[in-house]
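This follows on from our talk about sequence and fold. Can you supply me with one protein entry, sequence and fold together? Could you add the entry underneath, on a fresh line?
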Amino acid sequence: MKAIDAILQNPGVALRRFSTNLKGTVANTYHLWLAPTGKAYDILMEAITILSRAYHAPVFEPHVTLLGYLPSTEEDISVRCLELGGSLAPFDILLTEPAYGDQYFQCVFLKTQETPALLNAHELARRLFVKDLSPYIPHLSLLYGHYSLELKNNITSTLSQTLRLNFTVDMIHLIRSKSEHPVDWTSILTVPLSG
């Protein structure tokens, strides 16, 4: 059964593709993800796969980044991740309207409602990992790349309403990134939210 009737309601539109401009290998970086499961995962993964194939972009796992580029060693980050999981109770992620941005990793995405639970989880993580205060724009990406405004607008205007999902987060995923390409991203620790 198809989870999505039509992500792109007008697939015949000729669209201009641009280079993805991925950077080369970098030192390991670490990130905290909140990921959907079950039916929400299936629907979002299908959308990401279809868009990525249509626009020759990398396929990646659906996720909302709670906090990125964590400082310290893998061992220290893992210990802090366990502490964070013990401080948070499960909460809901509410995906709202599609949008697009100028950054490679915020090309086309679904906005995430800034609920008190999500903002609290981000703030706890930021303090625990001693990260400077910076704007937090929670979102779930659907397509990575650098494309024209016209193309991004066309994609967001034709996304299916079935992508506006809610899902419960009951785990934090610690991701090790060996490069900026999703093929080099690995979940190295999954911590239940037990607070």
